Each structure stands twice: as structure tokens, then as C-alpha cells.
Amino acid sequence: MGIAEIVERCERLHEDIDFTAAREWKAAEPGRRVIGYLPVYVPEEIIHAAGMLPLGITGGGDQMEVIHGDAYYQSYICRIPRSTIELGITGRLDFVDGMIFPSICDVIRNLSGMWKLMFPDKYVRYLDVPQNYRDDIGGEFYRNEMRELLAGLEALSGRRVSDDDINASIRVYNRNRELVRTLYALRSDQPWQVPTTELYLLSRAGLVLPVEEHNQLLEAYLEAVQSEQRPRRDNCRIVVNGSFCEQPPLNLIKSIEMAGCYVVDDDYVQVNRWLKREVPSDGDPFEALASAFLHHSADTAAKYAETEEQVGRQLLESVERNRAEGVIFAAPSFCDPALLWRPMLADKLSRKGIPHISFKYSENAGQMAPIREQAGTFADSLKLWS
Amino acid sequence: MAEDKLKEAVKEPSMILQKELIAGNYEALTSAPETGRKVCSTFVPGNLNELIRCFDMINNLPEINAINNGMRKKTGAMIQDAEKAGHSEDVCTYVKSDIGMMAQGNIAPNGKPMPRPDMLMLSYTGCYTFMKWFELLRHEYKCPTAMLQVPYQGDGRITPEMIRYVVKQLKEEVIPTMERVSGVKFDIDRLREMLKLSARAEDDLVWVLESAKHRPSPIDAYFGAVYYMGPIFTAFRGTREAVDYYVMLRGEIEERIARGQGPITPEGEQKEQKYRLVVEGPPNWTSFRQFWKMFYDEGAVVVASTYSKVGGLYDRGFRHDPEHPLESLAEYCLSCYTNNNMPQRVDLIEQYMHEYEADGFLTNSIKSCNSFAAGELLMMREIEKRTGKPGAFIETDLVDPRYFSAANVKNRLESYFQMIEQKRKGEKSAA
Ligand code: SF4
Ligand code: SF4
């Protein structure tokens, strides 16, 4: 497959708010089940090991007109829960057998209970994750959460899942994470070769495809992109932060690049890079997944930073490692976690003299001109000062 | 009528006692630099007041400071200061008024500066904003922080694993930090003694809240209840003073019941009770009296509210238990109202509608507070469906005066009361 073909496939997946690929996967064999989940992270390995397809749901994007969803939310609540409800009410998730709402914020937390009220026949699980990072405290709690999740899925499928099954799934996801890391490293190294829109679309495809297929897609892209030389622009290098839940429209992602910024790291859909290292797959899988969560996972606003030193540490490391010249904070409007975190991160950056700007968006934002202008001015100032 | 034209508020002896208690706590806080007592900042829902007191620390509650500043109309400027300093207009205004208060010298209601906290007790029950709020304060104060994660009741129940997790954190993280900061050794018997006192006050608080089942109701279970819950939800649970306060309050209400009297509003006794309401959501603080007046002027009395349960669902049976001190603290943290899932919240309100024979259900949706607000529209529809009683929805904010539109709220309430009236007439003519 060539780049164009791969990207086109991903684009189609991204635009498809009926989740046709997941529907087809389910229909291909009787007894298959699909489990939807919301941002920011769930241990997909557990779902995969249960023989089910984990389906990442990040709202309706800018493709979907929200008609019913607004009747469920006040104007001052972000957009992703209302478009997710719209997906539910319009039957677009009727083939989904269960939904997992992970601990990220009060909005998605409450949405878990709303789902229970609205879709009483579906399996609904609120997944708490640890905010205590000791193996014997937070680790124990999280191992238990995962076991309960698995027990729920086993009850749904009537099929027992062994540790070996989960270990096998960990291996497939390890490969996925490795490929995604390679893709990110390649973009950071040669951002003109891997435009962020392409990287983003590839990431998004991972939310809706079986992981094995996603792995093939990533492999194919990585191969194809090496054999083609793409024009190099005089862009500055920036990191995007704050977009870990409700996703910006693709046009916004494009706009940042068109405004003269190479994105060299970001926190867009990060379920595939949440665990930052290879997860051991030869022992107790719950231990391995819990330990990876506690000690080697991504920082987001949804996690407690145990010490003041830890606040922004990963962001600063990313800026350094990726030789970024500045940071763009791009957060969804009304997103408490991201917007409460931003001043702390901004302060850490300022202390190191790292320039930053910030703006808010919503998943259906149509007006790109102001953002392009802001990013463009930022890029110009970075070039001027570097 | 403009708020500042409201008359001097009518106060009962229990209110005067409460005022003294709170003033005493502020005095203890602001004199901490001289007395050498340690200050522990923490949040209201699921707070560990007894534990904090076990280490002789003084409890400082930033939410209460925000409410205090809100009622004294100081938060508007504080919030704007915080926004100027880079905090988003979208986030919880309690946080911003706290940050703005710091920027303005952190002056307590007694006019003296608040001390820097010696520790932050980040027990987050029912709200994720708490976590970032105290990270922001830690960023400022660089002081020790103890984190207590309280799992959410996602499936509508408290499991033994949840209790174990909270207890383990108490034993291995929270208590050692408190010992280190305060220099006081943990004494579980002292905790037991306090929990005994907590349970006694809790019994009386429940009696007080349930007195609203009477007709006429002797209390307003929303506007009045924010005073009644004061001592127990803040720095006094587990103290003799709190026990005395609730005995006194109960006595006052018993008298009102005997005389067939209604609640005491800032303008005296509420004589007329045409509408009995159940209310969801916190009140607005910057126009608190004006807001309340819109109810009692129309003859509306609140007979039950969810906000008066943010610090514990005592009326559903929970009591602090000296026999199982740490487990009972854990259960307390886990069971606060906003740590209940949405089906539990709907069930609770439905029960209130029946138990308190309410005519309607009103939501005061707070712009700041996703923890309460996300899902409230669905809740309202569910309650309407289940009870057949009309619901109404108003939108305000806690302490940001920009989001309290008196005219809109008043219009909305007036048409709502008319709706209840019409519904009643319809029911009568159908009967
Ligand atoms: S966008 Fe932010 S506030 Fe909204 S659901 Fe996601 S994390 Fe929560
Ligand atoms: S979001 Fe709500 S519960 Fe949380 S701190 Fe703000 S007002 Fe309190």
C-alpha cells in the first residue's frame, strides 16, 4: 500500500460515524462483541483477551450534527459527552455490547451513570484508575479494578480468560505501542516526512480497528514513508498539549501545520502511547499492566502529580527530547482538567524560558482563521528569536 | 429589590452560636503563627475533620472561604484577578476565588491574614477539580500534600475493596504525613472519642433535616440547611461544640413545630407554604439572600435538598462508628452525595419527592460545578417521569456574580410556581 492509499483509508475511518469497520468485524463471526470506551485510557489488552474489539469513542467530531445531545447538557459543558449521547440516541452505537467510562473527569464519570439510565440493557462500567502510585496500595486497587472489568466481560461472553490469553494480548499491544513510538520518533526526526495530519489519522484508526490490522497499517505506512522524499519547509518545532480528550477537528490540526508549525509531540488520542515502555508479558499480567500504569504512563491532567517536581516533567522532557522551540496549549472549551492544569504547566515552561501560547477549541469548531493566525504569529516569533 | 436594601437578618440563638464557632476557627487560623498550631487545608465533602483534630491541627476549608467571600461580595474581583493571572474563564470559580484571595493577601473574614497551610489534605470525594485545585495550591505553597483517593461508586455501591483501599491510604500515607507535619503521634482512642461525638451530632442533624416532613415545614431544607450543615460539614464534627449546637438547634425547631411555625428567613418567619420543593445543586452565594427571598416571597419552601448531603448522606443511615474508626472514615468519604452515581442520585431524589410530599423538583445548575451539573437535565426528566411532578431548571453560579441574572431566575421561578398551580388545578378537576 502507498501512503495515499493508507491515508485515504484512515480518513474514511475517521469520517465514519457509523463505525462500519467495527460493525463488519463483529458481523464476520457469530458471538463477537464490541466494547466501546471513552478517553483517556483503558487497558485494551483485557478486552482483547476476552475476544472482544475495544472501540475508542471520542465523540462525534465535526461530522455529526448534534440534535438530541444538547438537550442533555448545559451550554457550559464541553462537547464530547453530548455528541457521544447523540451517537447513542441515533443508534450508531447499537451494535456495541458494552461501554467503559474511565476515570478522567466528572463529566465522563457522570456520563457512565447516564448511560446506565439511558441504556439499561447494556453492560456499563466505570473504570477507576489509581491516583496512588505505590504497588501495594494503588497497584492493588487497580489490579482489582482490572479483575472486576475482566469478570464483567467474562460474564458477557460466557468465556473464561486465562493469564496466558492476556499475556498474548499484551504482546500484540506491545507491538502496537512500539510501532506508534517509532512513528512518533520518525515525525520528530523528520517532521516533513510525517505530517501530523497523517500521524493523527493513523492514530485515530487504531481506535476503531482490531489492533492486528492497525499494526499492519502502521507497518505499511512506516515502510511507504521511508521510500518517498517529501518537501521540507522552514517550520518551527512545537509540542501540542491539552488535547487528550475531546479531539480538535482535523482542520485545526492541519491549520497548526499550515501556519508554519511542525508538531513534534502531542497528546492527541493517546491510548496507544499511554504505557511508555514495553509491558512484560511472561508473568502475572495484572501486575504487569498495573506496574506499567503506575510507573511508566503518560502524564495528563487526569492524573495526580505526586510531587510538585513531577508537574510538567514529561512536558519539559518532551520539549527537550524533541528539540521543540515552543508549546501550544490547545484544550477543549470547558475542559476543567486541561484548563486547570495549564497555568501550572505554563509556569514551568516560563521558568525555563520556553515560549507558549494557548487557545481553546471544540470538536466541531468551524472557524480556523483565528487559530491559524495565532499559530502563525507564534511560529514567526519563534523563528525570529531562535 | 437590591440585595443591599435587605433588612438586617433575623437570627436565632443557634445562628449566633454558629457564628461564634466559625469566628473562633478563623481566629485560631489567623493566630496560628503566634500559637504555633499547624494548619491543614482540606475540602468539605468527605472531610477528615476528626483525624485532623487528632493531630491538634486547625482545619482550613478553602470552599468555606470562597462561600464567605461570596456572601460578602468579594469574589467577583477575586475571580477576575485569577483570570487576569491566566486562569481560564471556564473553570470552577471556587478555585479562582481562592487563588484571587491569595493574590489579594489572603485576608480572613476577621481582617487578619491567613497563615500558609502546613499541609494540604487532598481527599477528593466526588469531584476531580479538587485534585487540580490542591496541585495549584501546592504549586504556590510548596507544602506537604497527602492524597487520599476515594473511589467513585460507579456501580452504585461501596465494595469491601474500596474500603480497604481508602483505609490503607489512611494508614500508610495520610496518618504518617499528619504525624510528620504535626509532630503528634496518632492516638486511635482519641479518634474513637471524637467519632462518638460525631455520631451524636449526626443523629440530631438528621432529626433537623427530617423535620421538613411536617406541615408546615419548620425549616427550609436548602437555604436554611446551609446553616444547619455548617458545623458538621466543616471544622467542628467530632467536637463537643457541634453536639451542643445541634441540641440547641433541635430545641428551636421543636418549639417551632409545637407552635406550628415555618422556617425563620432573614426577614423573619415564613408564614405561607404554598409549594413544597426538592432542590438539586448548590445555591448561589453572591446573591444568597435575594435568591432565597424569591422563594419565600412566593410561598415556596424547600423540604429536601441534595446539596445538604454533599458532606454525607446521614439521613440514609450512615453514622461515624467509634468501633471501626478508620473503616467508618472510609465509608463516610465514599458515601457523600456527589460520589454516588447518577442512578443513585435519581433514586434518592425520587425518594425525597415521596417522603417529603413535594410538589415539584427544582435544579439549580451551577456553571462551575461539573460534578453536580453534568447530567442534571437527564436527572430532571427522570424525576418528572417517575413522580409525575413538574421539574424546573435554573442556571446560576456559586461565587461568580456575572452568572447570577436575578431577573431571569425570578421569571423562571414565577412561571414554575404557576405551572405547579395549574398542575394542581388539573389534578383536582380530574379527581
Ligand atoms: S473534554 Fe475535558 S471536561 Fe470534557 S469530558 Fe473530556 S476531560 Fe472531561
Ligand atoms: S467543581 Fe464543584 S465540587 Fe468541585 S470544587 Fe468546584 S464547586 Fe466544588
TrEMBL record, chain A:
<dbReference type="InterPro" id="IPR011958">
    <property type="entry name" value="Benzoyl_CoA_Rdtase_C"/>
</dbReference>
<dbReference type="GO" id="GO:0051536">
    <property type="term" value="F:iron-sulfur cluster binding"/>
</dbReference>
<keyword id="KW-0560">Oxidoreductase</keyword>
<keyword id="KW-0411">Iron-sulfur</keyword>
<dbReference type="GO" id="GO:0046872">
    <property type="term" value="F:metal ion binding"/>
</dbReference>
<dbReference type="Pfam" id="PF06050">
    <property type="entry name" value="HGD-D"/>
</dbReference>
<protein>
    <submittedName>
        <fullName>Benzoyl-CoA reductase subunit C</fullName>
        <ecNumber>1.3.7.8</ecNumber>
    </submittedName>
</protein>
<dbReference type="InterPro" id="IPR010327">
    <property type="entry name" value="FldB/FldC_alpha/beta"/>
</dbReference>
<comment type="similarity">
    <text>Belongs to the FldB/FldC dehydratase alpha/beta subunit family.</text>
</comment>
<keyword id="KW-0479">Metal-binding</keyword>
<dbReference type="GO" id="GO:0018522">
    <property type="term" value="F:benzoyl-CoA reductase activity"/>
</dbReference>
<keyword id="KW-0408">Iron</keyword>
From TrEMBL, chain B:
<keyword id="KW-0560">Oxidoreductase</keyword>
<dbReference type="GO" id="GO:0018522">
    <property type="term" value="F:benzoyl-CoA reductase activity"/>
</dbReference>
<keyword id="KW-0411">Iron-sulfur</keyword>
<keyword id="KW-0408">Iron</keyword>
<keyword id="KW-0479">Metal-binding</keyword>
<dbReference type="InterPro" id="IPR011955">
    <property type="entry name" value="Benzoyl_CoA_Rdtase_B"/>
</dbReference>
<dbReference type="Pfam" id="PF06050">
    <property type="entry name" value="HGD-D"/>
</dbReference>
<comment type="similarity">
    <text>Belongs to the FldB/FldC dehydratase alpha/beta subunit family.</text>
</comment>
<dbReference type="GO" id="GO:0051536">
    <property type="term" value="F:iron-sulfur cluster binding"/>
</dbReference>
<protein>
    <submittedName>
        <fullName>Benzoyl-CoA reductase subunit B</fullName>
        <ecNumber>1.3.7.8</ecNumber>
    </submittedName>
</protein>
<dbReference type="InterPro" id="IPR010327">
    <property type="entry name" value="FldB/FldC_alpha/beta"/>
</dbReference>
<dbReference type="GO" id="GO:0046872">
    <property type="term" value="F:metal ion binding"/>
</dbReference>
